[in-house]
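thought: fold this chain, then report.
action: predict
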Amino acid sequence: MELEQILSLPNMQGVYLSLGTNLGNREENLLKAQELLASNGITVSSASSVYETAAWGKEDQGDFLNQVIKVETVLLPQVLLTEINRIEKEMGRVRFEKWGKRVIDIDILYFNNDIIDQVNLKVPHPEIQQRRFILEPMVEIAADGIHPIHEKTQTELLESCVDHLQVKQLVG
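observation:
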């Protein structure tokens, strides 16, 4: 993509989070996470549909419901991460296994166009381009947003994604 094309496309202004759950009442978990975010000054300004997909990474567990939300916040990235971790814990998340089952998982996908490379926080999320369950909902709410490292739109990332797990949009 040429620089002029990149500059004319919408950037990733705003903070995008992914929500995922495969334990308990999954739809309720997604709603509860959004409510807890809002009650802590992290306002949801738009939300994708909910998508269902088989577990990624560790496949011997129940299907996940996933959603991407755009939020407005005055929190700095590390403070936002602390709040997210607190909300996950409040909802009953226990971190005992990588890619394991969970009541809720909240990840920071994008923080404006910031590139953050810290031990406990990497933004943009380093796996976006490899996860269809993130890209499908991202395309729904920010198709033309440019990934600040790969310099591709969310649509282009989805088109070149090698993850072939079926991602099914839930209706109603």
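thought: worth noting. The chain is about 30% helix and 25% strand.
final: tokens above.
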